[in-house]
Write a structure and sequence with these properties.
The chain has 341 residues and is an alpha/beta fold. It is built from twelve helices and twelve strands. A six-stranded parallel β-sheet has the order 2-1-3-4-5-11. A six-stranded mixed β-sheet has the order 7-6-8-9-10-12, with helices on both faces. Helix 1 crosses helix 2, helix 5 runs parallel beside helix 12 and helix 10 packs across helix 11.
Length: 341
């Protein structure tokens, strides 16, 4: 029989049965006679019948679809995190819909609204760089739709989150610079209202304090995440006298560290002999530049996997309290030539 899509009603009509009897037979319900079950399953196989999973999910109040909202999928970290989410989702036979905020609060709001229209069973999200008020997220949470945050998170008591131990990563990178002989270390960071950049800054300053080194406020860039911002910052601080220059630089972003290195190479400052440089994220280019850049790896794919596993535990249990609220991923410092004095 040729048909673009065979339905239960087609099977029922051919066999002279009710649609509900066919449905129960396909579920191998013992209330249906063995002969009827055999007749139904043989015809279903012959006609290549495929159950309508969407209809079944709607009856159960499930879409088997989750929403993933990230700042940019073009960034290595977020693309790897999505790969981890998709691997776990595929194994669990869930669909994934992805929306990018492009670091815009308004886009983030639009993404959540779009997911609610689909609808989805839950969300995995990382906040945009502009997100400083959270009412749009609280409105979703009031509907009892679970959200698992990762990387950049909403820091409220009962939220579910999977985060890198950013503090430990920054502390390790800074201590490594100190062990290489650096005593005057500059810092390039991001906005303090985002948890990951705040924790990296805290790890940096605590590492200096532990080693009896002072923080120079003039060498602290609170907003230097792009290549251009990194170059502008080092141009400013290296315009000082040679005696008053940093001998080390820790950046919360590999991109700003790249900008800093390119500027220093252009002006004849030797890396790492005069200035050792460490970044954060372990972007693909860090391995291939000259000198190759020391950086903190964020285990992005593991973070994505953990976020998806946490979300599915919440959805499948029907009881959010049964799932752990927070999970830390441990960073790994990848040491390369840019810091090996």
């Amino acid at each position: 029989m040729k048909n673009p899509r065979i339905t239960i009603h087609d099977l029922a009509k051919e066999l002279g049965l009710s649609s509900s009897t066919v449905s129960r037979a396909l579920q191998d319900n013992p209330r249906i006679s063995e002969k009827t079950r055999k007749d139904v399953t043989e015809l279903a196989a012959k006609w290549n019948y495929q159950p309508n999973s969407n209809a079944s999910n709607l009856r159960k109040g499930r879409s088997n679809t989750i929403g993933v909202l990230v700042p940019r999928i073009s960034r290595h970290f977020f693309s790897n995190a999505i790969a981890g989410i998709e691997a776990v989702s595929s194994a669990a036979k869930r669909n994934v819909v992805i929306f990018q905020s492009h670091e815009s609060l308004e886009n983030e709001k639009a993404g959540l609204e779009a997911f609610l229209r689909i609808p989805v069973d839950g969300f995995i999200m990382s906040l945009s760089a502009e997100t400083r008020q959270y009412e749009h997220i609280r409105e979703v949470l009031k509907r009892d739709i679970p959200i698992v945050f990762f990387d950049r998170v909403l820091e409220e008591e009962n939220n579910y989150r999977v985060v890198l131990d950013d503090y430990a990563g920054a502390f390790q990178a800074t201590e490594h610079l100190i062990r290489q002989g650096c005593r005057k270390i500059a810092f390039m960071g991001g906005p303090d209202y985002l948890n990951n950049y705040r924790e990296r800054k805290r790890g940096f300053t605590d590492a200096l304090e532990k080693n009896n080194l002072s923080v120079n406020p003039g060498w602290m860039a609170e907003q230097a995440l792009t290549r251009e911002e990194g170059a502008a910052f080092v141009e400013k601080i290296f315009g000082q006298s040679v005696q008053n220059r940093p001998d080390g630089l820790f950046s919360c972003s590999d991109y700003s560290a790249l900008g800093a290195i390119l500027f220093m190479k252009k002006t004849g400052i030797r890396i790492p002999e005069e200035v050792a440089v460490a970044g954060f994220a372990n972007e693909p280019f860090t391995e291939f530049m000259e000198p190759a850049m020391t950086s903190v790896d964020q285990s992005a794919e593991e973070m994505g996997q953990s976020a998806a596993e946490m979300l599915f535990r919440i959805i499948d249990s029907g009881d959010a309290e049964k799932s752990a609220k927070q999970q830390y991923i441990q960073p790994k410092l990848v040491i390369r030539k840019s810091t090996m004095k």
